[in-house]
Design goal:
Blueprint lengths: L14 H5 L2 H13 L5 E3 L2 H8 L7 H10 L3 E6 L2 E6 L2 H4 L40 H12 L33 H9 L4 H17 L10 H19 L16 H20 L1
Antiparallel strand pairs: 1-3, 2-3
């Protein structure tokens, strides 16, 4: 889909804009035209090249990687299909009649947070539908009857925000997305070892049936694991040597004595000569 977008004047003086190449900025503005009203677009580099930069000799893959590194966009998979998402898109764009075409990173359609406010355009056949306000109210009222007295009024009812995703153990074939891998690399971490430790830790939680091993957002859990691993590395590494000179081991008494004898002999020969 193609939409008319507005450009905020602060975009041109933003520090990320200044650090982005000229073609990277142009690609970012073009993605805003192609994305739906939640900032999500299909991740097809060749198609994006033909639609945004058809007559320019540029590497679209490197430009997309640049936007990922600068935190302009992120990418994720839903049912084996790769999508891209413009970060903070709804902060700068306020369409009057929003149209949603793609699911969010959790698979919700419309994207989570917009289900009860705006009507979707057309849902993909394989995308799970977010529950409506009336469905949530009836479900929660049914659950409230089985709660102890005083708890049925706490948090029961319909709100504008979508329900939180259920907490589950680490899925068997879970893999970090490309943006999650880049996040680990930007922190200077080694991905294979980090991923192995991550899976081993949370698999152990599942074997022990520890409820703390259940998470609702494993991508967020991965990023927290990366930050903690980086902090742990900084505390375990030995402190660097202070000063510009290398530490020279002190000479033994035997070497100092031999050096003094050599100097005395050399001076005596010079005087005799």
């Amino acid at each position: 889909m193609s939409r008319i977008r507005s450009i905020h004047p602060g975009f041109w003086s933003n520090y990320k804009t200044i650090q982005t190449s000229a073609y990277g900025r142009l690609l970012f503005l073009g993605l805003g035209n192609l994305a739906d009203d939640s900032g999500i677009f299909e991740w097809h580099p060749k198609a994006l090249k033909l639609q945004i930069l058809p007559n320019d000799r540029v590497n679209i893959t490197l430009l997309l990687r640049e936007l990922l590194d600068k935190k302009w966009i992120e990418t994720y998979y839903v049912e084996g299909v790769q999508y891209g998402k413009i970060l903070n898109f709804r902060r700068w764009q306020s369409p009057k009649s929003p149209v949603y075409k793609y699911p969010d990173e959790r698979g919700y359609f419309p994207p989570e947070g917009f289900a009860t406010k705006l009507k979707p355009h057309k849902a993909p056949s394989n995308a799970p539908q977010a529950p409506s306000c009336s469905e949530k109210t009836s479900t929660m009222n049914g659950l409230a009857k089985n709660l102890p007295l005083g708890e049925e009024r706490s948090g029961i009812g319909c709100t504008d925000s979508s329900p939180a995703a259920p907490k589950i153990y680490l899925p068997k074939h879970w893999m970090p997305s490309e943006s999650d891998r880049l996040y680990a690399l930007t922190l200077g971490l080694t991905f294979p070892e980090l991923f192995e430790d991550f899976c081993q830790h949370w698999r152990q939680k599942e074997q022990e049936q520890d409820p703390k091993g259940q998470k609702s957002d494993w991508s967020l859990t991965w990023k927290r694991w990366c930050r903690r691993s980086k902090t742990w590395q900084q505390h375990t590494q030995p402190p660097p040597l202070r000063g510009k000179r290398d530490v020279i081991p002190a000479k033994s008494k035997t070497s100092n004595l031999s050096w003094m004898v050599d100097q005395f002999t050399l001076g005596k020969e010079q005087n005799n000569g």
